[in-house]
Write a structure and sequence with these properties.
10% strand, 64% helix, two-stranded antiparallel sheet, two-stranded antiparallel ribbon
Protein backbone atom coordinates (compact mmCIF):
# COMPACT_ATOMS: atom_id res chain seq x y z
CA UNK A 1 0.00 0.00 0.00
CA UNK A 2 1.25 3.50 -0.83
CA UNK A 3 0.79 5.88 2.08
CA UNK A 4 -0.62 9.28 1.13
CA UNK A 5 0.49 11.79 3.78
CA UNK A 6 -0.96 15.18 4.64
CA UNK A 7 2.14 17.36 4.44
CA UNK A 8 0.41 20.36 6.03
CA UNK A 9 -0.34 18.44 9.24
CA UNK A 10 2.61 16.05 9.08
CA UNK A 11 0.20 13.13 9.56
CA UNK A 12 -0.02 9.99 7.46
CA UNK A 13 -3.77 9.37 7.32
CA UNK A 14 -3.39 5.85 5.91
CA UNK A 15 -1.28 4.83 8.91
CA UNK A 16 -3.90 6.26 11.24
CA UNK A 17 -6.74 4.34 9.59
CA UNK A 18 -4.68 1.15 9.65
CA UNK A 19 -3.92 1.64 13.35
CA UNK A 20 -7.61 2.21 14.08
CA UNK A 21 -8.54 -1.00 12.27
CA UNK A 22 -5.94 -3.04 14.15
CA UNK A 23 -7.17 -1.54 17.44
CA UNK A 24 -10.72 -2.52 16.49
CA UNK A 25 -9.60 -6.10 15.85
CA UNK A 26 -7.90 -6.23 19.23
CA UNK A 27 -11.02 -4.95 20.98
CA UNK A 28 -13.04 -7.65 19.23
CA UNK A 29 -10.54 -10.29 20.33
CA UNK A 30 -10.80 -9.05 23.91
CA UNK A 31 -14.60 -9.41 23.80
CA UNK A 32 -14.41 -12.87 22.24
CA UNK A 33 -11.84 -13.98 24.79
CA UNK A 34 -14.07 -12.81 27.66
CA UNK A 35 -16.98 -14.75 26.20
CA UNK A 36 -14.90 -17.89 25.70
CA UNK A 37 -13.56 -17.71 29.24
CA UNK A 38 -17.12 -17.57 30.55
CA UNK A 39 -18.12 -20.53 28.38
CA UNK A 40 -15.09 -22.50 29.51
CA UNK A 41 -15.86 -21.83 33.18
CA UNK A 42 -19.46 -23.01 32.69
CA UNK A 43 -18.30 -26.23 31.01
CA UNK A 44 -15.58 -26.99 33.56
CA UNK A 45 -18.13 -26.57 36.37
CA UNK A 46 -20.58 -28.79 34.46
CA UNK A 47 -17.93 -31.50 34.19
CA UNK A 48 -17.33 -31.29 37.94
CA UNK A 49 -21.05 -31.68 38.64
CA UNK A 50 -21.23 -34.69 36.32
CA UNK A 51 -18.33 -36.26 38.21
CA UNK A 52 -20.31 -35.92 41.43
CA UNK A 53 -23.40 -37.29 39.70
CA UNK A 54 -21.52 -40.40 38.60
CA UNK A 55 -20.22 -40.93 42.13
CA UNK A 56 -23.79 -40.89 43.40
CA UNK A 57 -24.96 -43.28 40.67
CA UNK A 58 -22.16 -45.74 41.44
CA UNK A 59 -23.00 -45.50 45.13
CA UNK A 60 -26.69 -46.10 44.36
CA UNK A 61 -25.86 -49.20 42.33
CA UNK A 62 -24.31 -50.84 45.40
CA UNK A 63 -26.33 -53.70 46.85
CA UNK A 64 -25.61 -52.42 50.35
CA UNK A 65 -27.98 -49.44 49.98
CA UNK A 66 -31.63 -49.55 50.92
CA UNK A 67 -34.43 -48.21 48.66
CA UNK A 68 -34.81 -45.24 51.02
CA UNK A 69 -31.10 -44.45 50.65
CA UNK A 70 -31.43 -44.53 46.88
CA UNK A 71 -34.37 -42.16 46.95
CA UNK A 72 -32.22 -39.65 48.83
CA UNK A 73 -29.48 -40.05 46.23
CA UNK A 74 -32.04 -39.60 43.44
CA UNK A 75 -33.07 -36.27 44.97
CA UNK A 76 -29.45 -35.13 44.97
CA UNK A 77 -29.00 -36.22 41.34
CA UNK A 78 -32.08 -34.19 40.40
CA UNK A 79 -30.69 -31.18 42.26
CA UNK A 80 -27.41 -31.55 40.37
CA UNK A 81 -29.35 -31.62 37.12
CA UNK A 82 -30.87 -28.24 38.00
CA UNK A 83 -27.38 -26.93 38.70
CA UNK A 84 -26.21 -28.05 35.27
CA UNK A 85 -29.30 -26.49 33.69
CA UNK A 86 -28.35 -23.19 35.27
CA UNK A 87 -24.82 -23.52 33.86
CA UNK A 88 -26.17 -24.37 30.40
CA UNK A 89 -28.21 -21.15 30.56
CA UNK A 90 -25.24 -18.98 31.53
CA UNK A 91 -25.49 -15.36 30.38
CA UNK A 92 -22.79 -12.85 29.57
CA UNK A 93 -22.54 -9.37 31.09
CA UNK A 94 -25.06 -8.09 28.52
CA UNK A 95 -27.63 -10.71 29.46
CA UNK A 96 -27.10 -12.79 26.31
CA UNK A 97 -27.34 -16.56 26.65
CA UNK A 98 -24.02 -18.08 25.70
CA UNK A 99 -25.16 -21.45 24.40
CA UNK A 100 -28.30 -20.44 22.47
CA UNK A 101 -26.70 -20.01 19.06
CA UNK A 102 -28.00 -16.80 17.48
CA UNK A 103 -31.08 -16.74 19.74
CA UNK A 104 -29.15 -14.95 22.45
CA UNK A 105 -32.30 -13.59 24.08
CA UNK A 106 -33.70 -17.08 24.67
CA UNK A 107 -32.45 -19.53 27.34
CA UNK A 108 -30.52 -22.36 25.71
CA UNK A 109 -32.61 -24.98 27.51
CA UNK A 110 -36.18 -24.68 28.74
CA UNK A 111 -39.65 -26.15 28.48
CA UNK A 112 -40.92 -26.69 24.96
CA UNK A 113 -44.58 -26.53 23.86
CA UNK A 114 -45.11 -30.03 25.26
CA UNK A 115 -43.70 -29.09 28.64
CA UNK A 116 -40.54 -31.12 28.13
CA UNK A 117 -37.06 -29.77 28.79
CA UNK A 118 -35.46 -29.19 25.39
CA UNK A 119 -32.91 -27.11 23.52
CA UNK A 120 -34.53 -23.80 22.56
CA UNK A 121 -31.60 -22.24 20.72
CA UNK A 122 -30.46 -22.82 17.16
CA UNK A 123 -27.37 -24.27 15.51
CA UNK A 124 -26.00 -20.96 14.23
CA UNK A 125 -22.26 -20.42 14.58
CA UNK A 126 -21.54 -16.72 14.49
CA UNK A 127 -18.16 -15.45 13.32
CA UNK A 128 -16.42 -12.11 13.77
CA UNK A 129 -13.52 -10.46 11.96
CA UNK A 130 -10.35 -10.46 14.07
CA UNK A 131 -7.91 -9.47 11.36
CA UNK A 132 -7.62 -8.78 7.65
CA UNK A 133 -9.08 -11.90 6.03
CA UNK A 134 -9.23 -13.60 9.44
CA UNK A 135 -12.48 -14.64 11.15
CA UNK A 136 -13.17 -16.87 14.12
CA UNK A 137 -16.09 -18.42 16.01
CA UNK A 138 -17.90 -16.24 18.51
CA UNK A 139 -20.22 -18.85 19.99
CA UNK A 140 -20.85 -22.53 20.57
CA UNK A 141 -24.41 -23.90 20.19
CA UNK A 142 -25.62 -25.72 23.27
CA UNK A 143 -26.06 -28.98 21.36
CA UNK A 144 -22.30 -29.05 20.75
CA UNK A 145 -21.61 -29.11 24.48
CA UNK A 146 -24.68 -30.67 26.07
CA UNK A 147 -24.84 -33.58 23.67
CA UNK A 148 -27.40 -36.31 23.25
CA UNK A 149 -26.61 -39.90 24.15
CA UNK A 150 -27.24 -42.79 21.78
CA UNK A 151 -29.38 -45.50 23.32
CA UNK A 152 -30.82 -48.82 22.20
CA UNK A 153 -34.62 -48.54 22.31
CA UNK A 154 -34.97 -52.24 23.14
CA UNK A 155 -35.99 -53.09 19.61
CA UNK A 156 -32.54 -53.00 18.09
CA UNK A 157 -32.84 -49.35 17.06
CA UNK A 158 -30.42 -46.58 18.06
CA UNK A 159 -32.11 -43.41 19.26
CA UNK A 160 -30.81 -40.11 20.51
CA UNK A 161 -31.79 -39.06 24.01
CA UNK A 162 -31.39 -35.47 25.16
CA UNK A 163 -28.76 -34.49 27.71
CA UNK A 164 -31.19 -33.63 30.49
CA UNK A 165 -33.56 -36.49 29.66
CA UNK A 166 -30.69 -38.93 30.19
CA UNK A 167 -30.09 -37.43 33.64
CA UNK A 168 -33.80 -37.62 34.49
CA UNK A 169 -33.83 -41.29 33.47
CA UNK A 170 -30.84 -41.95 35.71
CA UNK A 171 -32.52 -40.22 38.65
CA UNK A 172 -35.68 -42.30 38.12
CA UNK A 173 -33.65 -45.50 37.89
CA UNK A 174 -31.94 -44.70 41.20
CA UNK A 175 -35.24 -43.74 42.82
CA UNK A 176 -36.87 -47.03 41.75
CA UNK A 177 -33.79 -49.19 42.49
CA UNK A 178 -33.69 -50.17 38.80
CA UNK A 179 -30.22 -51.70 38.63
CA UNK A 180 -30.21 -52.31 34.88
CA UNK A 181 -31.01 -48.71 34.04
CA UNK A 182 -28.71 -47.44 36.78
CA UNK A 183 -25.83 -49.18 35.02
CA UNK A 184 -26.95 -47.73 31.71
CA UNK A 185 -27.17 -44.30 33.33
CA UNK A 186 -23.63 -44.54 34.71
CA UNK A 187 -22.35 -45.28 31.20
CA UNK A 188 -24.40 -42.40 29.77
CA UNK A 189 -23.02 -39.94 32.31
CA UNK A 190 -19.57 -40.83 30.97
CA UNK A 191 -20.80 -39.97 27.46
CA UNK A 192 -22.31 -36.69 28.65
CA UNK A 193 -19.08 -35.75 30.38
CA UNK A 194 -17.05 -36.61 27.31
CA UNK A 195 -19.19 -34.27 25.22
CA UNK A 196 -18.70 -31.45 27.71
CA UNK A 197 -14.93 -32.11 27.83
CA UNK A 198 -14.69 -32.07 24.02
CA UNK A 199 -16.52 -28.74 23.94
CA UNK A 200 -14.21 -27.29 26.59
CA UNK A 201 -11.20 -28.48 24.59
CA UNK A 202 -12.54 -26.72 21.50
CA UNK A 203 -12.94 -23.50 23.46
CA UNK A 204 -9.39 -23.89 24.76
CA UNK A 205 -8.19 -24.24 21.18
CA UNK A 206 -10.07 -21.08 20.17
CA UNK A 207 -8.46 -19.20 23.05
CA UNK A 208 -5.01 -20.22 21.78
CA UNK A 209 -5.97 -18.85 18.38
CA UNK A 210 -6.82 -15.57 20.10
CA UNK A 211 -3.37 -15.47 21.72
CA UNK A 212 -1.67 -16.06 18.38
CA UNK A 213 -3.82 -13.51 16.58
CA UNK A 214 -3.10 -10.94 19.29
CA UNK A 215 0.62 -11.49 18.70
CA UNK A 216 0.15 -10.92 14.98
CA UNK A 217 -1.83 -7.73 15.60
CA UNK A 218 0.79 -6.49 18.07
CA UNK A 219 3.48 -6.90 15.40
CA UNK A 220 1.40 -5.13 12.76
CA UNK A 221 0.57 -2.30 15.17
CA UNK A 222 4.24 -1.88 16.12
CA UNK A 223 5.22 -1.68 12.46
CA UNK A 224 2.52 0.90 11.73
CA UNK A 225 3.46 3.00 14.75
CA UNK A 226 7.12 2.91 13.70
CA UNK A 227 6.21 4.01 10.18
CA UNK A 228 3.98 6.78 11.56
CA UNK A 229 6.70 7.95 13.95
CA UNK A 230 9.31 8.02 11.19
CA UNK A 231 6.91 10.04 9.05
CA UNK A 232 6.14 12.54 11.83
CA UNK A 233 9.82 12.95 12.75
CA UNK A 234 10.79 13.86 9.20
CA UNK A 235 11.65 17.57 8.66
CA UNK A 236 9.74 18.16 5.46
CA UNK A 237 11.22 21.65 4.85
CA UNK A 238 14.75 20.28 5.01
CA UNK A 239 13.78 17.30 2.89
CA UNK A 240 12.24 19.52 0.17
CA UNK A 241 15.26 21.86 0.19
CA UNK A 242 17.62 18.92 -0.17
CA UNK A 243 15.50 17.45 -2.95
CA UNK A 244 15.60 20.79 -4.83
CA UNK A 245 19.39 20.99 -4.44
CA UNK A 246 19.75 17.44 -5.68
CA UNK A 247 17.53 18.29 -8.63
CA UNK A 248 19.68 21.33 -9.53
CA UNK A 249 22.84 19.27 -9.23
CA UNK A 250 21.36 16.63 -11.50
CA UNK A 251 20.36 19.26 -14.08
CA UNK A 252 23.87 20.78 -13.96
CA UNK A 253 25.44 17.37 -14.46
CA UNK A 254 23.17 16.67 -17.40
CA UNK A 255 24.04 20.08 -18.93
CA UNK A 256 27.76 19.39 -18.54
CA UNK A 257 27.36 16.00 -20.14
CA UNK A 258 25.51 17.58 -23.08
CA UNK A 259 28.37 20.04 -23.67
CA UNK A 260 31.04 17.36 -23.34
CA UNK A 261 29.21 15.17 -25.80
CA UNK A 262 29.78 17.88 -28.48
CA UNK A 263 33.63 17.71 -28.23
CA UNK A 264 35.46 16.18 -31.12
CA UNK A 265 37.27 13.61 -29.00
CA UNK A 266 33.93 12.46 -27.53
CA UNK A 267 32.54 12.11 -31.08
CA UNK A 268 35.66 10.25 -32.12
CA UNK A 269 35.28 7.81 -29.22
CA UNK A 270 31.72 7.12 -30.37
Amino acid sequence: EIYQCDWSSDVCSSDLSELARQASYQETLKSVNTRLQTEETALVNTSDVLTRMKELAVQAASDSLSPADRQSLALEISALKEQILSLANTQDTNGNYLFSGSRVGTPAFGKDSSGNLAYLGDESRMKVAVGDNRRMNLNMPGTDAFVKVIRDDGKGNKVGVGFFQAIDDLANAVKNSDHINMQRGISEVDALQQGVSDAAAQIGSDMKVIDMQNSVLDEVTLRLKTTKSDTEDLDYTTAITKMNKDQLALEAAQSSFAKISQLTLFKYMN
